[in-house]
Structure prediction request, 69 residues.
Amino acid sequence: MESILIHPESAEQLKIVKAFLKALKVPFEPQAGNLPPHVLKNIEEGIKQYESGQSISFDEFRERHFTKA
Prediction:
């Protein structure tokens, strides 16, 4: 089934939408607000690094950063 993302513009709209969904017995999951700007910046930087070929495999990461027992 298709999902939708709703962006209420006020607390009142949010309250009404939730009440409507509950009345129709439509399941929904409240989501927290947007990520902080510094997190978004780091995500964008990581994507750019990956796209430019600056990435390593998980095995290589594990070899570099985890001690061997």
Summary: The radius of gyration is 21 Å. The chain has one domain: 11-65.
